[in-house]
Amino acid sequence: MMQDMAGWPASHWHHLAAPPLALLIFAVDTFTDLMSAIAVLYVLVMLIAARPLTRRGLILAGIGCQGLAILSFAISHGLGANVSAVLRLAVALAAILITTMLLLRDQASRARLMATHAALTRSERRYRLIFENARFSLWEQDYAQVGPALAALRAAGVTDLADHARRHPGFADSLAALIVTIDVNEATLELMGAQRRADVLGPLGRFLPPDRGALVQVLQALLDGRDHFEGRGAILGLDGRVRTVLLGITFPEEGDGLSRVITSLVDITAREETQEALLAARAELARAARVATVGALSASIAHELNQPLGALVMNAQTCLRWLRRDPPDIASASAAAERTVRDGMRASELVRKTRGMLVKGERQDETIDPRQLLEEVLPLLDREIGASGARVATRIAPDVGGIRASRIEMQQVLINLIGNGLQAMAQRPAALRELTLAIEAADADHVLISVADRGTGIREEDLPKLFDPFFTTKADGMGLGLAICRAAIEAAGGSLSVRNRADGGAVFDCLLPAAARQAA
Amino acid sequence: MARPAPPRAAEQPLVRVVDDDPAIREAMLDLLRSVGIDAMGFASTLALLEAGLSARPGCLVLDVRLPGVSGLDLQAQLAAGGDGLPIIFMTGHGDIPMSVRAMKAGAVDFLTKPVRDQDMLDAVAAAIARDREHREARAAAARVAALAATLTRREREVFDGVARGLMNKQIAGDLGITEITVKLHRGNVMRKMEARTLADLIRKAGLLAEGA
């Protein structure tokens, strides 16, 4: 490319022919008697000599040629020149002058062109360097074929691609095949675990994990005519590992077509994993703390209870002994039976007192806006929801007031119920996974928060014991989640119940006491 | 059936129950009363020690966790004082290291509350029987010691020689007396120690050695 623009195809040496040519013209012009404007031929000398000459050289050469023309005119005509000879000289001088000026202009524009080109090359090299050395993955992709496909959809009246993708399972795949990778940088090879660029170039489809959510979002951005997209996605490396990435795509102006789309990926797998581990650790800690509390409490309660129970059992046994004597000692048996009753009452009182103490000791009720509660909880479940492939819909009635409960406990209840709902739908087709969170005023004194899934529902025989401690339908479950949820809600003065939906799935209804509205 | 009247009050066994829970004490005492065993309740080890351990045979029923001096401490204290009253421990929860320690220190049994009545009665019966044996052995040893006290110094020396299995000739040699004199002393020893046979005499020598 450089040669084409800068080179004159001839040899580098041809300009050396200029001085002899000038001398030859001078000789012919001076010593022959040709009645023509030989001096015009100095133009050839100028053209031949121009290439290596600087601006100043060109001017000097022009002046030199004119000087030669005038000299030869002086030699051959002297002072007694006729009009035609003077006119020929004038034509020759004008020709040389014009040629010189044209050459000067040509040289200037060529110099400008060279400078521009050099700048362009430097810029190109710089951007290439940036592309190559960027520590995040950059992809140059051709979306040219995607444009018409989207235009066809738009013409067909499709506006919600996620919905369209759900209804046409092959849709995302067919579009993924149209996106072609043209170039990638070094960081991309690292990210993808690839040895050579060629391993990554070509259709993008084979690097997308089965979940096409991010792709559909990207296409939606294109369909909506946005000029860029940012979001989270996943990419399947050549080694089979799925990386979670932050995705940034800039779509060029419509005029450029979509043949050069730059996509950047930042690997956040490790960060996500850390985040996940942190959340898991936090949940585990909370669970361990709960178990430890339960353990410590049950040990002390067991000890306290064992005393009256020990006495009770012994008294009952002794009572039997008095009765089995021959003759039975009714008075002693009655006394023993009365002590049995007394010990039983004492045990029962102990249980009641312990319960009261527990419930009172840990409660920190406050007025909570249920909408805010959802806003706090949903981000915590972002990952689970994303991984489940389920859609989470919220349905919030407009005039719902606050509830009165412990914030942390209610958060835990919702996290538990939503997590259960997502798990319940894991085996359903992705298109059917939908979790609905609804908030409404049940009556003047109660707010209803319900979590409805579209899973397999709860088996009839499991319904009565679903909230029992240590009852679980999960292979790795402890069976404490729902028991704790119910305890927490009941402690707040509410109730937790479950029902199956007629059209599949389960609904957990948390009925919570409404906070007294502040007098306006 | 009337409750069997004790032949002598001192011989009638007495079970002492120590538990800080009055309901447990009451239940225990009535259970023991229902099978005709005399029993007394104490709220703490201190109360028990203040009341004094009478000469009556029997046993102690202790809760492991007692305020003040614990059951295990009391066991150690009694063992050190040579008062070999058998002990049955009760505990609110099966604490294995604790029960091992108690059993090693000579407890008759270690029962977990709630206690099955028959287990408790069996344990009490076994403890009382053991106490009887101990007391009888101690009484026999005391009697032999009383008899031995009537021996003269020379007779005691001959007795020791016989007990060690020496022949008359050897004893005579050791003591620097004639064999005839040894035989005379030996006859006195047999009479004073109320031994009918040589084997009986040697058994009594053994009891003496134990008591020493």
From TrEMBL, chain B:
Keywords: DNA-binding, Phosphoprotein, Transcription, Transcription regulation. Residues 14-128 form the Response regulatory domain. The keyword DNA-binding applies. Residues 144-209 form the HTH luxR-type domain. Coiled coil: none annotated. PROSITE patterns: HTH_LUXR_1, HTH_LUXR_2, RESPONSE_REGULATORY. SUPFAM superfamilies: CheY-like (SSF52172). CDD domains: LuxR_C_like (cd06170), REC_FixJ (cd17537). The modification 4-aspartylphosphate is found at D63. InterPro entries: CheY-like_superfamily, Sig_transdc_resp-reg_receiver, Tscrpt_reg_LuxR_C, WH-like_DNA-bd_sf. SMART domains: HTH_LUXR, REC. PANTHER family: DNA-BINDING TRANSCRIPTIONAL ACTIVATOR DEVR_DOSR. This is Response regulator transcription factor. The lineage of its organism: Bacteria, Pseudomonadati, Pseudomonadota, Alphaproteobacteria, Acetobacterales.
